[in-house]
From TrEMBL:
Keywords of the record: Cell membrane, Ion transport, Membrane, Sodium, Sodium transport, Transmembrane, Transmembrane helix, Transport
TM spans (from-to): 40-62, 82-104, 125-151, 157-182, 203-227, 239-262
Subcellular location: Cell membrane
Domain Cation/H+ exchanger transmembrane: 1-264
Membrane topology of the entry: Multi-pass membrane protein
Pfam families given in the database record: Na_H_Exchanger
Protein name: Cation:proton antiporter
Taxonomic superkingdom: Bacteria
Keyword Cell membrane part of the UniProt annotation: yes
Amino acid sequence: MTILEGEGLFNDVTALTLYQVTVYSAVHGSLSLPATLGRLAYSTVLALAAGLGIGWITGQLLDRLPTASARAGLSLLAPFAAYVPAAAAHSSGVLAVLATALYLSHTRAYTDDATSRVTGRAFWGVIELLVICATFGLVGLELTSVIRAVGHQAGRLVGYAALICLIVIVVRVLWLAPLAALTRRRARPRPAGEQVPASWRDSLVLSWAGMRGVVTVATALALPHLTAANTPFPGRDQIIFVAVIVVLVTLIVQGTSLPWLITWLRLRVDPAAESAADRHAATIALDAAEARLRERRHQLDTETADLAAQSFYAALADTFPEDEDVSDTQRIQHHKHVRALEVDLLHAAREAVVDARNHHIIDPDAADRLIHRLDLRSLTTS
């Protein structure tokens, strides 16, 4: 998933930049290699400059916003702020958005901003779902008029779509298989955590997972209706028709057969390796926390230090199994029971507050604020 998401991000940006240059040439009725390369360079440079500039401005504003909800709202506006000026200057708005996102992700890695991370993840999960639903909804609305427009050409276009499906599947396999083999050969020994396909089975799954989706549909729908000479854009309806068929075929055929392919190749996540990686990360965190606690013990009374340690050990309790022979295991297992008790106490407290609010015993706003605090605490103990 890490490889697919990263690859998809850069593939989409590259494709959309080329798409914009090609559409510009089609609209203006001329396509020459020197002019296309020049426009591609102009689009790339200007988009990167605009994206990095908007990223810097957004970072300055985020530092000054007091609440996580305000920062989440600004994170929604930032892509539009990067896209609009870049697109207005006839460069790649999508590349500008990518540059803004990468700049912010590398310059705003605040380890203690947990509230913004929790809020942002939930917020963007909803946004992503709505965008996908809206895009395919537009496909449904557009497809009826497109089918009427293509008329008797539908049969021939289905054949073209089948040929394009074959090409995108085969080319992806022919590209990824040798590339993955070369990467494995050059990446030994690999740094811990580096994502490289371990075998030809992994490469085959990555190749088969190249479904087409929202970006393909969106770019087809975004084709202009008219050229610069006020003539219909050549083949617009036919392009949309073929694009929708390619998306449906790849999503249905490749998407539904992917679990079968993984099972047939006998690919499995190694639970022992995953557990070992979790324990390694937790051990690093545990050592750092204990070192900090030793530094500050002279500033704290024994009871306060013990309570702080108890809360931290409870957060890592599930990482170490019962029979794990590591330092502090007994204390961690003890705090598993403490954490289970805390979950039960939080549940009882929430029920009491909700019941009191429903019976008008306490102020509703005060009850909602307290329930929110209890919910945040539940997130840290779940």
